């Protein structure tokens, strides 16, 4: 049989050298009694901060890659990424398996490309009003086409059918 006793802060005395401040908290703070392994937390903090540095480096590399492309290549890739984003939305609505992190990754990549495109327009002296006018013309000129992932899937299916028929 187990017994349970409840103690109030005034009825408990500690003989250790731990400094307990008076508060309205009726209990023991475990963090005060457990020694913390500072070496482990220091390694964790270093590794997590290093992870941030690596992420920043990847982002910088991606921006350098984007800036090396021409405006036409950027526009083509934006169209492809928007098509991929649409395919992801279709997969989500059909409740198929997909990586939800791809939404954020694609949206950010599209935003980076549009930012670089706008930076180039500003360098050329194109103001906001003309830029929007050019964007409308560009959007109207886009020919609907399947995204690269759908093309790849169709090619794989065609190859599988050819293999089965042969």
TrEMBL record:
GO terms for biological process: translation. GO terms for molecular function: structural constituent of ribosome. GO terms for cellular component: chloroplast; ribonucleoprotein complex; ribosome. The keyword Chloroplast applies. It comes from the Eukaryota. InterPro entries: Ribosomal_protein_uL29, Ribosomal_uL29, Ribosomal_uL29_sf. Keywords: Chloroplast, Plastid, Ribonucleoprotein, Ribosomal protein, Transit peptide. It is found in: Plastid, Chloroplast. Residues 137-166 are annotated as: Disordered. Residues 152-166 have a biased composition (Basic and acidic residues). Belongs to the universal ribosomal protein uL29 family. PANTHER family: 60S RIBOSOMAL PROTEIN L35/50S RIBOSOMAL PROTEIN L29, LARGE RIBOSOMAL SUBUNIT PROTEIN UL29C. NCBIfam families: L29. Part of the 50S ribosomal subunit. HAMAP family: Ribosomal_uL29 (MF_00374). This is Large ribosomal subunit protein uL29c. It comes from Nicotiana tabacum.
């Amino acid at each position: 049989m187990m017994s349970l006793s409840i103690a109030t802060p005034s009825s408990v005395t500690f003989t250790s050298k731990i400094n307990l401040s008076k508060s309205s908290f009726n209990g023991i703070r475990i963090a005060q009694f457990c020694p913390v392994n500072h070496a482990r937390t220091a390694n964790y903090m270093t590794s997590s901060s290093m992870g941030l540095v690596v992420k920043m480096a990847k982002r910088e590399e991606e921006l350098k890659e984007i800036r090396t492309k021409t405006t036409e290549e950027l526009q083509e890739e934006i169209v492809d990424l928007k098509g991929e984003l649409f395919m992801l939305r279709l997969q989500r609505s059909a409740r198929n398996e997909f990586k939800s992190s791809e939404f954020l990754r694609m949206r950010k990549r599209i935003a980076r490309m549009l930012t670089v495109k706008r930076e180039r327009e500003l360098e050329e002296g194109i103001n906001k009003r003309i830029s929007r006018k050019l964007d409308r013309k560009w959007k109207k000129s886009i020919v609907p086409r399947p995204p690269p992932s759908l093309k790849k899937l169709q090619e794989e299916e065609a190859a599988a059918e050819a293999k089965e028929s042969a």
